[in-house]
Amino acid sequence: MKLIHNGDPNRTLAMMIETYDPGTTTGERLKHQGEEIGTLLEGEVMLQVNGQSYHLQAGQSYAINTAIPHSFSNTSARICRIISAHTPTTF
């Protein structure tokens, strides 16, 4: 993950570029206060939220309540890149 803002601790919104190599996953379900929106720039990813799975491809977007357990898995043979915004800043 790469932050694309200056890391000012007074900010309440963070932008990131996330890169998932083929076969990688965030592992166990993530859970933290806030919201997240993102758009896949390239590749594809399996987003799991609260027991539901969503197969997303380049150009598609998502919006989730991050207090609900979630994870990302790249089961494809191509790299996946996502640009995302998070509030509050947790990274």
From TrEMBL:
Instruction: Note the Gene3D superfamilies from the entry.
Output: Jelly Rolls
Pfam families attached to this UniProt entry:
Cupin_2
Domain spans labelled Cupin type-2: 17-84
Which top-level group of life is the source organism from?
Answer: Bacteria
- What protein name applies here? HTH-type transcriptional regulator PuuR
Task: Tell me what organism the protein belongs to.
Answer: Serratia fonticola
